[in-house]
Specification:
This protein is mostly helical. It contains 8 helices and no strands.
Length: 171
């Protein structure tokens, strides 16, 4: 902050609270990392876009590099603890990603959204687990997740619900 001429107080005066600052940081991180990933696949379309997008997300380089890889797997638990502002920021970035992925799926919007939520959970979980296990130990995991996510996103439309929405129990 000193290098750009800001004081701590001057910086913090831009935010009404610590929660607002954290929400802004989450929003920035989520948008920036998602935009970087989309830049890597901008010349592709349809299934080729999805295929490459998934491969990059669960790649060795993305999993290995916590400092510059997607921060979302690292932030999700903290976002949930921080409350409404941080969750709303994450939700907005998540919806932005959903919109972009849905453009590459030949599915009705509700089914595309369902599949994207599942794919995102798989990919973020795989990145977190790969970072904990180590890259060499997680090669099979990352390969399995990539194949599973691609199957989920690109399979012919065949909705299936394993959860009963009324109580969340398996049926």
């Amino acid at each position: 902050m000193r290098e750009i001429g800001l004081t701590h107080g001057g910086f913090y005066s831009h935010f009404a609270s610590k929660d607002e600052l954290f929400a802004a940081a989450v929003a920035h991180a989520a948008v920036e990392s998602g935009d970087w990933l989309e830049d890597q696949v901008e010349n592709l379309d349809g299934p080729a876009w999805i295929d490459r997008w998934v491969d990059i997300y669960v790649s060795d380089g993305h999993c290995r590099n916590c400092a510059t890889g997607c921060p979302i797997p690292l932030l999700m638990a903290e976002v949930a603890r921080e409350g409404d502002s941080a969750c709303a920021a994450f939700e907005a970035a998540f919806q932005r990603r959903l919109t972009r992925v849905r453009e590459h799926l030949d599915l009705p919007a509700p089914e595309a959204a369902r599949r994207f939520r599942s794919a995102y959970a798989h990919m973020a979980g795989a990145v977190m687990l790969a970072r904990v296990l180590g890259i060499d130990e997680s090669n099979e995991l990352r390969r399995d997740v990539a194949n599973s996510v691609k199957s989920t996103l690109l399979a012919d439309y065949a909705p299936s619900s394993f959860l009963d929405d009324s109580d969340g129990d398996l049926t």
